[in-house]
Structures are given as structure tokens and as C-alpha cells.
What we know:
Elements: E1 2-3, E2 10-11, E3 15-19, E4 22-26, H1 29-36, E5 52-54, E6 57-59, H2 62-69
The structure holds zinc ion (ZN) (2 copies).
Amino acid sequence: MEKCEVCGNEYDKAFFVEAAGARHTFDSFECAIQKMAPVCEHCGCKVVGHGVEVGDKFFCCAHCARMATKADVRDRAA
Ligand SMILES: [Zn+2]
Ligand SMILES: [Zn+2]
């Protein structure tokens, strides 16, 4: 049994996510998103899609990136 590091739930189908050399244990994607997903600099929502990076800032979509940086940003996945 592995224990989710976000909610503490012990679950036999827990999974691992490796990022920046550290291994994280989660029982659900919801918990993984809670812990791993970057937060949009403009609207504050969790970025779970491709997101948009402008410099060192991260946004959920091109609209937010444009609003916050005034840069001509387009959705990368579009
Ligand atoms: Zn959990
Ligand atoms: Zn946003």
C-alpha cells in the first residue's frame, strides 16, 4: 500500500510521478494536480493542459497570457 502525499489516503492503486528528480506518490489525478500543476499567473486556476509560458511565467491559456503580459501569445496546441 502506498500513501498519497496530498490527502494521506492509502491506496493499492496509487501511482508515482517523477519530476525534477523527486518521486511523488498520489492516489488520484486530482491529488497529483493539486500538488504538481502550476497556477496561472493571471486567473489563478490550475494549469492542467499544455498551458502557455511567457518568460518565467505560466498561464492556463493564451488569453490569460495576453491579458497579463500584453504579448502576442497564441495557444501552442491550437
Ligand atoms: Zn490523494
Ligand atoms: Zn488563466
